[in-house]
Amino acid sequence: MFEKLSEILKKATNRIANALFLDKNLVESIIKDLQRALIEADVNVSLVKEFSEKIRKAAYDERIKGLEKKEHLIKVLYDELMNILGKKEELVLGKEEVIMLVGLYGSGKTTTIAKLGNYYQKRGRKVILIGLDTHRPAASEQLKQLSEKNKIAYFIDENEKDPLKVWKNPDLQKNIKRYDLVLIDSAGRHSLDKDLISELKALNKEIKPTKTILVMPADIGQAAKKQAKDFSSVIPISGIIITRMDSSAKGGGALTACAETKAPVFFITNGEKINDIEEFNPKSFVSRLLGMGDLETLIEKVKTAVGDKKQDLKKLESDLFTIEEFVDQAKKVGDLGGLEKIKSFIPGFSSAKIPEGLLENQEKRIEKWEHIIKSMTPEERKNPELLEKQTSRISRIAKGSGVNTSDVRLMLKQYNLLKEFLKTGKKMDGDFSKGLSQKQLLKLAKKFGKFKNLGF
What we know:
The protein is α/β, with parallel strands linked by helices.
């Protein structure tokens, strides 16, 4: 979505850093490029003008000389981008929370509530999703499918058309106390009409949610400002989730419009997968735009995909790292999204060219590995080195799983290499879970450079 803006910002910082002198022609050329990119990202023109003036003022500040001026200008560029996006405000949860999601048709409330539920469930919360959208025919079924697929508790009543009666259902009220995070999917309309206003007020009065979050799609752009104000005039809005940030050129307009209303953006979603949700952090967002990466958010995405449990680290210790665990972890890493998404989080890697179809090939490879494991005996799964000693086993497994012997050998090769990597890391550090120093990482990178020949 922000590819063009990111490209211009990277070029701007490089031009500033590499310039011998920050003369007027260079400064005005950079400002013009930045203006064009920000307007194309749907940022309000008055904000762009204000942003430009601050950059211009910093560039022409005679009190700052030489190298310090270039560093100062890049810092001002960074700071002002964060200013127009607003401050980071986390969604702080108490011991027991009831959160109601509101928004118009097409905002993606039902998909978002599942993503939010999955996000917090992976972080140890006891979550239940409740479907109170009784107007959209497919809403209950969609919530049911998403909940069951991702193993999240839910409650719907497909036969009841009154959302207040669904909420008051005795079975729901009896079991709801078992959960410390209740997420409610409310109904939408094409506009904030009288019926929706009346329903939202009634639900708010009856449920008394601890927080109410407005869900808006990025493609409404600067209209987000009006929508946020309209909903806030009906019921108290705690904050906002902006959806579909991956597919709209108007995302900049939506983000900056929310910042203008002082409504905090808690999360953004950027894809169809269950893990395509992240806390909105202007600092991290700008770092990625400038090609500086964002390892903190990447770590959070890993937690969302695989959970944040100590037993996961224990499994990764070489003695417990079975071939079945190897395939399971490979699948979980695939849930993070495409390599094109992941690379923007890694400093210095955003401009790397990822071969087309690499991720799809890896997904197909994992499918084959699952079939291979099913064709292995329990003894072979426990001791895969048997396959290397008795190659006839490889032929049998390949035939039984409908793959080539080369597929079996590749799986074994990748498993052994990763197991050796984990074992080496543990020896070097003493405690693998604490991570490695930069020097140790360089040693490992040199030793395991052969990864590139294995299709990773």
